[in-house]
């Protein structure tokens, strides 16, 4: 019979995986690395589109409307109906709330990710038939057809429906 050297034995045991403890730790390390790496990629994919606009030359950060701001907008619109446009609609909170109160509401937003999220949110809330969201720049929006125009803290009305 042939003699086996010490290096042959260690190579043989490595090939057959007889060192159970070492291979288990190695697999566990690979799995942990994949889970952590995958989680970081998913986190970046979800948060990246919301953070990216802040990295532009002209910073346009997304700041969601608060409950108080929503109350203020609808206290001014109390007893009125018609159409409303929100310029810089963000995640669509004001547009969706207006649609729930009977308005035909439209949102214009520069960030396409927020527009897609707004459309999804309107669909989920069941108001997607009375809302519309468009990717557009503030300076390129034509608001002549709307009775109420909202832009981050400012509400403008026209006398088209008899209520200014």
UniProtKB/TrEMBL annotation:
Domain of life where this protein originates: Eukaryota
SUPFAM superfamilies, sorted: S-adenosyl-L-methionine-dependent methyltransferases
Gene3D superfamilies named among the record's database cross-references: Vaccinia Virus protein VP39 (3.40.50.150)
Transmembrane segments: 28-47
Region called Disordered, residue ranges: 1-21
GO molecular function terms listed in the Swiss-Prot or TrEMBL record: protein-lysine N-methyltransferase activity
Transcription regulation recorded as keyword: no
Keywords linked to the UniProt accession: Membrane, Methyltransferase, S-adenosyl-L-methionine, Transferase, Transmembrane, Transmembrane helix
Family as reported in the entry's similarity comment: Belongs to the ANT/ATPSC lysine N-methyltransferase family.
Name this polypeptide is given: FATP synthase c subunit lysine N-methyltransferase
Provenance organism: Danio rerio
Lineage: Eukaryota, Metazoa, Chordata, Craniata, Vertebrata
């Amino acid at each position: 019979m042939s003699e086996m050297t010490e290096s042959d034995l260690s190579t043989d045991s490595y090939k057959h995986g007889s060192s159970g403890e070492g291979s288990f730790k190695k697999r566990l390390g690979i799995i942990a690395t994949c889970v952590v790496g995958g989680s970081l990629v998913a986190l970046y994919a979800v948060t990246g589109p919301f953070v990216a606009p802040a990295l532009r030359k002209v910073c346009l950060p997304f700041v969601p409307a608060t409950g108080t701001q929503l109350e203020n907008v609808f206290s001014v619109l109390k007893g009125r109906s018609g159409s409303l446009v929100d310029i810089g609609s963000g995640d669509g909170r004001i547009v969706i709330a207006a649609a729930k109160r009977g308005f035909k509401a439209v949102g214009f937003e520069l960030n396409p990710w927020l527009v897609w999220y707004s459309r999804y949110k309107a669909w989920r809330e069941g108001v997607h038939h009375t809302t519309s969201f468009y990717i557009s720049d503030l300076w390129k929006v034509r608001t002549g057809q709307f009775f109420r125009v909202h832009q981050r803290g400012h509400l403008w009305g026209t006398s088209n429906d008899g209520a200014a």
